[in-house]
Amino acid sequence: MSLKDNFNFEDFRKIAKKKLPAPIFHYIDGGSDDEVTLKRNTESFSKCDLVPNILASVGEPDLTTKVLGSKIDMPLFLSPVAMQRLFHHDGDKASARAAEKFGTFYSMSTMATSSIEEIANTASGPKMFQIYIHKTQGLTDNLIDRCKSSGFNAMCLTVDTIVAGNRERDHKWGFTTPPKLTLKSLMSFATHPMWTINYLTHEKFQLPNVSSFVKKSSSIAKGVMEYINEQYDPAMNWKDAEYCIKRWGKPFALKGVMSVEDAKRAIDIGASAIMLSNHGGRQLDGSRSPFDQLEKIVDSVGGKIEIIVDGGIRRGTHVLKALSLGATACSFGKGFLFALSAGGQKGVEMILQRMKEELRRDMILLGKKNIADLSKDNIAFRD
Q: What pLDDT is attached to residue 176?
């Protein structure tokens, strides 16, 4: 199947499954424990229906919106994802260039396989950096200051990954970082020679944003889950978040907020936005989906802080349902990762193009001229 024949999330997922060795594919595709939350993230959008208005003289709808201090050309952007070099040899650089082309945010993980400075020189579009609170003294400050110097537009603090979730597929398929040949993974790497050749003949796998701060004998050489458990601070608290907000001094989001109480607290410490997220169903299995929590949080803090829905987004209609309930914007991870795996920068551009086409078409069918016209009147929940 050629890239042009990929029309939706599932198409890109199928081609990614063919191209990637099993440990790499299942790292993207999987969740924690029984993957209940992973499935629910998307299923939750099916609990309600869109209610269109007719004869609305829509013409060409305006998809632009403003989030985290930047105007973007559509209300959807790329979530921060670690280690993109594993999925395609161009990794974060390909994703950043694609996001720039579509006028939307590229989000960079602390655990990216390119440096902050490399990405700043690669793409000039809006960029957000995802930070964690590390035990290593000085690393958090170093990352914030480098992002300032490199002209990043926004920052988010991930608050739901103080320990690694139980991602059983990673154990089952022998996922390691960097990839290593094991009895579990040997056959899969051998039957995907193009991935293996590209991995071995392009830039070496590294995590340049953190490697200089971590001893060579540490868990960074063992695997990302071990690194999280060893390096991320499980005692992270609201004072840490407030400190990061003040040191950064520009638009700042808390990623992983899911309760009304925490949403209110985010406002109190000066956050610009909250990202409703359960880390793609990869952390606490059995937790709520972002869409299921959206209305309750909007009713409590809507208009006081920007609300971004991160999780389960596969269609333009998912984005429009979230916006109709009061979200400022949405972000997605698995969708663009499958596209990156399928075709590098062109793949990410293609899924962004597909999503933009869906948003445009569905806005016309809904009878809405711009994002601000969307409201709860467009939504009907089934009993």
A: 84
Task: Provide the residue type at 241 as one letter.
Answer: A
Q: Domains (ranges, CATH) in the chain?
A: 3-381 (3.20.20.70)
Which residues are CB-contacts of 33 (< 8 A; sequence separation ≥ 6)? Answer: 165, 166, 168, 285, 286
Backbone angles phi, psi at 260, to 5 degrees: -60, -45
Contact 289, 37 (CB under 8 A): yes
d(CA 303, CA 326): 9
Helix, strand counts (H, E) of the chain = 15, 12
- As a residue count, the chain comes to 383
Q: What is the DSSP letter of 60?
A: S
Provide the β-strand partners of residue 381: 48
Residue 1's pLDDT is 65
Q: What is the amino acid identity at position 349?
A: E
Closest listed residue to residue 152, CA positions, set 212, 70, 65 = 70
Q: How far apart are CA 61 and CA 371, in angstroms?
A: 8
Q: CB-based burial of residue 364 (10 Å sphere; 0-12 exposed, 13-18 middle, 19+ buried)?
A: middle
- Which residues does the annotation mark as catalytic? 279
CB-based contacts of 363, cutoff 8 Å, min separation 6 = 58, 61, 63, 320, 369
CB 92 within 8 A of CB 98: no
Q: Could you tell me which of 110, 111, 121 has the C-alpha nearest to residue 143?
A: 110
Mean pLDDT by 10 residues, the chain (383 residues): 86 96 96 98 98 94 98 98 96 98 98 97 98 87 97 97 91 86 82 93 91 58 67 89 97 98 98 98 97 98 97 98 98 98 98 98 97 96 89
Helical residues (DSSP H) of the chain, grouped into ranges: 9-19, 22-29, 36-43, 91-101, 116-122, 139-149, 168-173, 186-190, 193-201, 224-231, 238-248, 260-268, 290-301, 316-324, 334-366
Comparing CA positions, the residue from 275, 277, 362 lying closest to residue 316 is 362
Measured distance CA(332)–CA(312) in Å, rounded = 7
Question: β-strands 329-332, 273-276: how paired?
Answer: unpaired
Q: How far is CA 203 from CA 28, 197, 198, 306, 346, in A?
A: 21, 12, 9, 38, 19
Q: What is the DSSP letter of 377?
A: G
